[in-house]
TrEMBL record:
Its EC number is 1.3.1.98. GO terms for cellular component: cytosol. The gene is murB. It comes from Liquorilactobacillus nagelii. GO terms for molecular function: FAD binding; UDP-N-acetylmuramate dehydrogenase activity. This is UDP-N-acetylenolpyruvoylglucosamine reductase. InterPro entries: FAD-bd_PCMH, FAD-bd_PCMH-like_sf, FAD-bd_PCMH_sub1, FAD-bd_PCMH_sub2, MurB, MurB_C, MurB_C_sf, Oxid_FAD_bind_N. PROSITE patterns: FAD_PCMH.
Length: 302
């Protein structure tokens, strides 16, 4: 593997590549082992070159987005890991906003507000990237990305450029075609409507206030850990099971919102996974409800 990593670094000297870089420096949980090779493409062409060359060398490819709704295991990730945070251009024409995959979703909602465009207010406080939001059909407060997406440009696993319409993306609850096929999102176009700028701002402020009041934003976390099971609220199930505050190492079920697991300081991914497993087992035993993870769990065991 090291030989292939070195070969890729030699072939692409123009791209920022880091060998053995700890992913805890980039994940929102502040946990995760090293990437064999971590890449930060500056534009679509560099992303295409990375995929093409990694394929030739038969290196596995993992795309992290902004690593917000994600747990990277303590053993790190094999092969090439791509973080798109340097691809963050956002453009607006009439009622459409096109944003590169590494752009912050919060920045996109801010541009929508500045241009008096409505439809993205629900995403005002979602701490992910555009690519990650497409990947998992991010949503909050009754809104989902699928409601406003017009088209998405991707690179498939063979390095080919493709453009998907909203219909092509097979959106579902916290799911999209991107998860199934493993494409790398380059950019997305959102189709919005003209609105009252003051009302847009008021709604964004209201949702951000509600988020700050209910969610443990003062600690590192991966966001909402579990999907909402049909007919139940995850946080209430965890509270009713007496698990709020349950802790393994420095990974703790938040005292502020039981649907979150926070890092109190030195938590490992292993601590997180042990807490998750304990919650799942307890809820299944007490309430016969199977909790599925919303957070993406990837990488090697330590």
């Amino acid at each position: 593997m090291n030989k292939k990593v070195l070969q890729l670094m030699e072939k692409l000297p123009q791209i920022l590549l880091l060998q053995g870089e700890p992913l805890s420096k980039y994940s929102n949980t502040r946990t995760g082992g090293p990437a064999d090779l971590l890449a930060f493409p500056a534009n679509s062409q560099q992303a295409i070159e990375l995929v093409e060359q990694a394929n030739k060398l038969q290196l596995p490819i993992t795309i992290l987005g902004n690593a917000s709704n994600l747990i990277v295991k303590d053993g790190g990730i094999e092969g090439l890991v791509i973080i798109l945070r340097n691809m963050k251009q956002i453009n607006c024409q009439t009622n459409k906003i096109t944003a590169e995959a590494g752009a912050s979703l919060i920045d996109v909602t801010e541009m929508a507000y500045q241009r008096g465009l409505t439809g993205l207010e629900f995403a005002a406080g979602i701490p992910g990237s555009v690519g990650g939001a497409i990947f998992m059909n991010a949503g909050a407060y009754g809104g989902e990305i699928s409601q406003v997406v017009e088209s998405v440009t991707v690179i498939d696993r063979q390095g080919q450029l493709k453009k998907y319409s909203k219909r092509d993306l097979n959106f579902n609850y916290r799911h999209s075609r991107i998860q199934t096929e493993g494409d790398l999102v380059l950019e997305a176009t959102f189709n919005l409507e003209s609105g009252n700028q003051q009302l847009i701002h008021e709604k964004m402020n209201d949702l951000n206030f509600r988020r700050a009041a209910k969610q443990p934003l003062e600690y590192p976390s991966c966001g909402s850990v579990f999907k909402r099971p049909q007919g139940h609220y995850t946080g209430k199930l965890i509270q009713d099971a007496g698990l709020q505050g349950f802790r393994v190492g420095d990974a703790q079920i938040s005292l502020k919102h039981a649907g979150f697991i926070v890092n109190l300081g030195q938590a490992t991914a292993g601590d997180y996974l042990t807490v998750i497993q304990h919650v799942q087992q307890t809820i299944l035993k007490k309430f016969q409800v199977k909790l599925e993870t919303e957070v993406r769990i990837i990488g090697r065991d330590a």
